[in-house]
Specification:
This protein has 162 residues and is of the alpha/beta class. It has a seven-stranded parallel β-sheet with strand order 3-2-1-6-4-7-5. Helices cover 33% and strands 19% of the residues. It starts with 11 loop residues before the first strand and ends with a helix. It has helices at residues 22-35, 52-58, 73-83, 120-125, 143-158, and strands at residues 12-17, 38-42, 67-70, 87-90, 96-97, 107-111, 128-131. The chain has one domain: Alpha/beta knot, CATH 3.40.1280.10.
């Protein structure tokens, strides 16, 4: 497990709970590198971090990414509690549209596993449960797309980092 304190410029962090798809994780690491926010991955992941799809999606941005890997939920919670950030869960069963939520510096934006979301204990630990409305009737969005939308709204509210 790597534990890295958030950068002084990072207003929030993206957190992935046991991601299944290497390409999505690579795209989110690239997103984090480009916008200057850390990405936490709570294990176990459904792929090896040397996966070709992870490298292809992250391209040469992986070296720039501030990745923190946690062995499991318990080890992530220990770090989160020491940092004091709110846990903001993005879920299809959320009760607040993400554009109506007030983000704060230090928030940890959590996205669940592609195949199954997060378990009930993780839902219970969240300080807020947000939904990305889908008026077109879809069941869910791609994880990397959801992360980009979440990060974009948090950036809009907190400033663009410049």
């Amino acid at each position: 497990m790597n534990i890295r304190q958030p950068d002084s410029q990072a207003w929030f962090r993206l957190v992935l709970y046991q991601p299944d798809i290497a390409g999505n994780t690579g795209a989110i690491l690239r997103l984090g590198a480009c916008i200057g926010v850390g990405v936490d991955v709570i294990g176990p992941a459904g792929f090896d971090f040397s996966d070709r799809a992870l490298r292809r999606a992250g391209m040469d941005y992986l070296a720039m990414a501030a990745l923190t890997r946690h062995d499991d939920w318990t080890s992530f919670e220990e770090v989160r509690n020491s940092l004091g950030g709110r846990l903001i869960l993005f879920t299809t069963s959320g009760d607040i549209p993400y554009t109506e939520f007030e983000f704060r510096p230090g928030d940890m934006l959590l996205l669940g596993r592609e195949s199954s979301g997060v378990p009930s204990e993780v839902h219970a630990a969240a300080d807020a449960r947000l939904v990305i409305p889908m008026p077109g009737g879809g069941r869910s969005l791609n994880l990397a797309l959801s992360a980009a939308m979440a990060a974009g709204e948090a950036m809009r509210q907190l400033g663009n980092g410049t």
